[in-house]
Amino acid sequence: MNLQIKGLKVKAGDSQILKGVDLKIGAGEVHVVMGPNGSGKSTLAQVIAGHPFYKISGGTISVDRKTINKLSADKRAKLGIFLGFQNPVEIPGVSVFNVLRKAGQAKGQAFSKGDSKLRPGLNLGNFRNQLLEYASSLKLSPDHISRSFNEGFSGGEKKRNEILQMLALSPKLVILDEIDSGLDVDGLKVVAQAIAKFHKKNPKSSIVLITHYARILKYLRADYVHVMIDGKIVKSGKQKLASDIEDKGYEKWQTQSL
Ligand code: ADP
Ligand code: MG
Fold first, then answer.
1. Does the beta carbon of 211 lie inside 6 Å of ligand 1?
2. Candidates 8, 9, 11, 15: which one to mutate for ligand 1, based on the most atoms within 8 Å of Cβ?
3. pTM over 0.85
């Protein structure tokens, strides 16, 4: 999916958070967004996904040349936009399986109870088996999908659960907000390899990784790296920019923007 953001300005309440963001992502590209805490990375992610709290005060967000500024979050999800949250919410009493089944149904996947000869692969049993396979590839236990959504999950389980949703929904634009924060070395490897495998299987899907670290790029190749400071993208480059930032920090752009 192509994403084009032009001059995007966004307010949270009275404060201006995004101050003119330009970003172009081609189908199948992998982009990384880095930046200090509070620079607006999560705001950008939420606004692309259509979070109603944020007000767009200027600019446009378009996917495949269609402006989506006014589309609700569920319509954007139906178009294939997926956001893996930095801090996923808990939904007590509703299982992972049921959330994903509903999400799949809302996206137009039809499920039948029995084995359907007309639509093989789309019955509930197959869907369940598919989820179990994804869970296993993420090193989540088989009972994971029966657990209450995010309730009592460890930090690592929450992050893997975001990736499980991504795998189940096959989105066309994947935005992962700090998917690598709070994961141990093994967890990072499992998650990064799952994203890499997803990308290989869905080569036209675009991926945006918001991160503080270059280490996820050991498993995934990024086409572009962007630096966000104070609500603007101040620098874009290739993968090497990520390791430069890990070495040297953001200071040189921060002093520029003052
Ligand atoms: P980042 O993800 O880069 O750390 P955020 O997008 O979370 O940054 O936040 C950017 C700025 O916007 C911060 O100053 C934050 O306090 C403010 N902000 C974000 N969301 C809200 C909100 N819901 N209400 C008030 N301020 C917010
Ligand atoms: Mg954030």
1. no
2. 15
3. yes
Domains and CATH numbers, the chain: 3-85+152-257 (3.40.50.300), 91-149 (no CATH)
Ligand 2 centre distance from Cα of residue 110 (Å): 35
Q: Is the CB of 7 under 6 A from ligand 1?
A: no
* 226 touches ligand 1 (CB under 6 Å): no
Give ion ligand 2 contacts, CB < 5 A: 41-42, 86
Pocket test for ligand 1, best of 17, 53, 232 (most atoms within 8 A of CB): 17
Judged against a pLDDT cut of 70, whether residue 183 lies above it is answered with yes
* φ, ψ at 255 (rounded to 5°): -70, -35
Query: 185-201 vs 155-169: helix axis angle to the nearest 10?
Result: 10
Is residue 43 a contact partner of residue 230, using CB atoms and an 8 Å limit?
Answer: no
- pLDDT digits over 61-75, tens only? 999 999 999 999 999
Q: What is the pLDDT of residues 207-239, one digit of tens each?
A: 999 999 999 999 999 999 999 999 999 999 999
Whole-Å CA distances, 249 to 82, 177, 220: 29, 19, 22
Straight-line distance from the first to the last Cα atom of the chain, in angstroms, rounded to the nearest whole number: 35
Average pLDDT, the chain: 93
Q: Give percent of the chain with pLDDT exceeding 70.
A: 94
